[in-house]
Amino acid sequence: MPLLSKYEMGMDGSLSEYMWDKKGKDFVVVAVQGWGRWC
């Protein structure tokens, strides 16, 4: 089963990519920003 990914806008206007792992158990959040990156 491939990864499920969905893109949403953050409250600060940043674009975040939410990726689900194969087991669908854990949520991995990758922040994609033009201004910078946060972990």
TrEMBL record:
Entry superkingdom: Eukaryota
Protein name stated in the entry: Uncharacterized protein
Lineage: Eukaryota, Viridiplantae, Streptophyta, Embryophyta, Tracheophyta
